[in-house]
Amino acid sequence: MAQEEATDTTTVEKTSEFLGMDLTAMAEKATDIVSSKGIDFIAAIIIFVVGRFVAGLITKGVRNVLHNRKVDQSLIGFTTGLAQALMMTFVIIAALSRIGIQTTSLVAVIGAAGLAVGLALQGSLSNFAAGVLIIIFKPYKVGDYVVAGGAEGVVEDIGIFTTTVVTLDNRTQIIPNSVATSGVIENYSKKGIRRLDLVAGVSYGDDIKKTKEVLEGIIAAEPKVLADPAPFVGVMEMADSSVNFAFRPWVKVDDYWDLFFQFNEQIKLRLDEEGITIPFPQRDVHLFQEK
């Protein structure tokens, strides 16, 4: 009996000693893990904070450079936002990698997602690229009168993806930028002046020298007509029913449409006053009697 009690006491002592040693080892291991991981966590936080600060500085620098080069504000906002998002993604991946998280699969997922989004947004990305080119190279700007992408009118807004044009009858047309840049762009406002091309037809029986003097007088009486380039009046063609005169003054873009309608009216009134005939289309019919 006494021997059994001694055996039990020895077993308990050995068990307690083993458990004590095991708990001590576990505590030391846990301390080591916490210590090493704690350093990693602190390093990750430092990477995130410093990376965020550096990303902010770079974004601010990019914004200032674009602003000094007078890049469109919408492009500045988009470009700086995209740059900051890319840099912060890199910073977050670096911080996660520092604490032992495997980021290879995360990078692969981000890459695959980017590819999928790119394929889904092919049209939008082409419009975006075209919008960037429009903003950088400026084939037209807000306020210009253009013909582009099948639309004609005054440019009201140039966005990253679309261009908004208002027609002369106040219709709003929204053109995808890739469509606007896919063909010839006619910008009537780029040079600041335009040539008014009108045609005045008179009868073959009228004095063409007098007609020319009358037309030149109409131009000379209008102060909005530019002296340089010089206006031109001359016989353009001898048509089927009339002698057609080219009436071509140069005017400022802002005055174009006012003078377009004004000159058409003045040509008719002045030719009537001078007794110069504006003929209707005529056709001579010859009848032959068969014998």
Could you please describe the fold and organization of this structure?
The protein contains seven helices and ten strands. By secondary structure, the chain is an alpha+beta fold. The chain folds into three domains: 119 residues, Orthogonal Bundle (Helix Hairpins), CATH 1.10.287.1260; 49 residues, SH3 type barrels (Roll), CATH 2.30.30; 81 residues, Alpha-Beta Plaits (2-Layer Sandwich). The strands form three sheets. A five-stranded antiparallel beta sheet has the order 4-3-2-1-5. It is elongated.
What is the CATH architecture annotation of the largest domain?
Orthogonal Bundle
Strand content: 15-25%
The largest sheet, given as strand count, sense and whether it forms a barrel, is: 5 strands, antiparallel
In helices, the fraction of residues equals 55-70%
Question: Secondary-structure element order, as H and E?
Answer: HHHHEEEEHEEEHEEEH
Total strands: the figure is: 10
Termini Cα gap? 164 Å
Round the mean pLDDT to the nearest integer and report it: 80
Given as residue ranges, the uncertain stretches (5+ residues, pLDDT < 50) are none
Q: How many helices does DSSP assign?
A: 7
CATH topology of the largest domain: Helix Hairpins
CATH class of the largest domain: Mainly Alpha
Class from secondary-structure proportions: alpha+beta
Shape, principal axes of CA atoms: elongated
Radius of gyration: 41 Å
Number of domains: 3
Strand order of the largest sheet: 4-3-2-1-5
GO molecular function: mechanosensitive monoatomic ion channel activity
Transmembrane segments: 41-62, 74-96, 108-137
Membrane topology: Multi-pass membrane protein
Domain Mechanosensitive ion channel MscS: 124-190
